[in-house]
Amino acid sequence: MPGKMVVIFGTSCILWTVFAASQAFKMETSPESRSLAQIGDSVSLTCSTIDCESPSFMWRTQMDSPLYATVRNEGTKSTLTMNPVSFENELSYLCMAFCGPDRLEKGIQVEIYSFPKDPEIHFSGPLEAGKPVTVKCLVPDVYPFDRLEIDLWKGDHHMKSQAFIEDVESKSLETKSLEITFTPIIEDTGKALVCRARLHIDEMDSVPKERETTEKLQVYISPKNTIISVNPSTRLQEGGSVTMTCSSEGLPVPQIFWSKKLDNGNLQPLSENATLTLIAMRMEYSGIYVCEGVNLIGKHRSEVELVVEAFPGDPEIEMTGPLVNGKPVTVSCKVPNVYPFDRLEIELLKGETILGNKNFSEEEVGNSLETKSLETTFIPTTEDTGTVLVCRAKLHIDEMEFEPKQRQSTQTLYVNVAPRDMTVLVSPSSILEEGSFVTMTCSSDGLPAPKILWNSGIYVCNGINQAGIIAPEDIKLTAFPSESVKEGETVIISCTCGNVPETWIILKKKAETGDTVLKSIDGAYTIRKAQLEDAGVYECESKNEVGSKLKSLTLDVKGRENNRDYFSPELLVLYCVSSLIIPAIGMIIYFARKANMKGSYSLVEAQKSKV
Q1: pLDDT per residue as tens digits for the range 462-495
Q2: Which PROSITE patterns match (predicted)?
């Protein structure tokens, strides 16, 4: 269509020119016959006359379409201005000049184009070595695009060329592009990628026919080979420290990010440095630590698991009591604050003999410090004295070379022997005259040597050491005033035992039909007005936690004479003597207590201290 219009317009111009040659004045146009205008610009067409002082002008289009322009007449010149140029201005404009009766006409063909911007280069993503990428060279707002050609160069290598020879169905601005996919390599870095666009309009001398855009290539390498090094180990002691260093390869050099994986799977950010140091480690520091290398085009991560072991102290040895020869004792080997205890093994040895062994591998481990123990019972003998009892705890962690895997405690055994073979020596005699002195010496075998305690009154010697006390000894069963009394008299049967701690006293009257337990008060049973049937065998049983002892006496009750008064003079004398004996016994008890804790006691010295 534009070609036909050019032919018609050319023929008209020839006729107008022939016709104008016969006229008296002349006419000129600028540009002469053709104008190239870029859409959006401002273009002016000028028509002027020569040899006509007062011409008049008129502008019209060949097809009598609207001008889409403004006209300004000044003297011998008329200007038609298109501002801005649009598709409607792609017309043949005719300028008519009138000078009196004469008229001249001249036409100007306006052709438009659009090539306002340099090409644009777009990538489908960052250039990653070894990964295909699509590059697009885009030319925006071009018209007429059927005259457009695009070339793409990488350095000196011509990658692709494309022309757009196709029918233009409508007048519109089009964006055309060239696409190509290639695989960048690291050697492409620094090379120039050139997108060059040409609009083939030969007459277009005043504007660039060619535009290009250049972009230097930067090829990246996604992070890879992310490595974590841990010093000293991934298994650590509570209270210790650890340093983890992370490295990752890539271009540009990846930035390092540290985080800790939580129980819910989320990551808790920790640091953006390559080195992460943790000090004063606690059990809750156990878990999975994540190092991630990140750059512009990707990221890569590596993980490491830290286990904080709690094995802070040596085992503790405990016993249910002191070691006594022949008496069973339970020993406990306790390991406090251990984690994870499923790797714990406890062993208890007596010398070279293994008393017990236990591991906890089948128990379920929680996230807490646990105290585990091993218990065993054995019967010590005096031969065990000096033997070493060893409690050994092992935490089976192969990687933990920098800390002991084994802890142990030792205790040297010392077996005690309870006091025995007690003897009491009285010098000069156990029967004394008032005012004389006496020395009593007590001895007892045992390990360690027993401590001697004296009880006053009826003098009782007790031997005590760490092994315990002896079974009831020196049990005394007496009848006061005598084991032979007369019918109607009062008699007191008394049982005493001086062991420490105090013993239980049980008084009984023996009979063929069965024993009768007597209601005694502090081991004493009083028979008032003794009868013949009160005669018989009386037994005293003394008990403590170690053992018991028995003592018996025979009480004889004599019948009363008929010719004698119940209150005979002999009986009155007996009662008077009894009233004097009781205070004397009290004084003996008083002085004996003052001499308590000593191995011997002298009545003479006691009398002197009283004076």
Answers
A1: 556 666 655 566 778 888 888 888 888 898 888 8
A2: IG_LIKE (PS50835)
